[in-house]
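User: Hey, quick favor. My workstation is busy. Could you predict this chain's structure for me?
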Amino acid sequence: MKNKKVLIVDDNALNRKVFENVIGHNYFFESASDGLEAIELLKSNEYDIILMDIQMPKLDGISCLKIIKEEEITDIPVIAISAYSNQGDREYFLSTGFDDFIAKPVKPKDLLEAIHFHLNQNKTRINIPEKEKEIDVDINESVIQQLLKYHSLDNIKSVYKDFLEEAENLTEEIKILAEFNKFEEIGEKLHILKGNSGTLGVNMMYKVTALFEKKIKNSTTEELNDDIEQLKSSLSKFKQLVENDKIFIKYE
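Assistant: No problem, here it is.
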């Protein structure tokens, strides 16, 4: 299947890197940071399938797909990837022309199964075994185990360290935004943190950011400060696990 090529379209750099690491063992790939860049790549290159984020600047996923179809740029499968996750949203995305839908946070297992399904001519959905997700543990190690099937431990370590660096930067930005009560912008930063922590199985941060994002629109200044302290605490805990290699040592 290494002769197949995937176009990854997502405005978040860490999302792109995670997707590249998950699929890179089986498929060639290129990445675009928004819909406009994706269209230019599609006009000058051949791909077999597209992974399309929905919420992007410049040109969102739905508008991008509309242009692709109206201008008949390509007829390859396009999989929508979005934080929307209820059945109504799924049906809406399919009705707009997407061939499939994967909800964020994206499980590596779901991503690989969907790509295989749409590239396999006999359309047989494979089932890649995965341990039940344990949301009550700090790290969902089934994500690491799934990634290890396709990449080296050093490669996977770099992904988690990249996420740690991004999480530290976003947390600092949230602290600054909180001084000016910019709740909407804080919500946008939390959305990124929630999605990436969920994809990588960093449950300690996923739980905190998911609750924080849910509350942010109605937060008071006092509640905001408390939530930021919880975010910093979960980040500090994750940092210790990554920097001491505690989550990787059993795989050495």
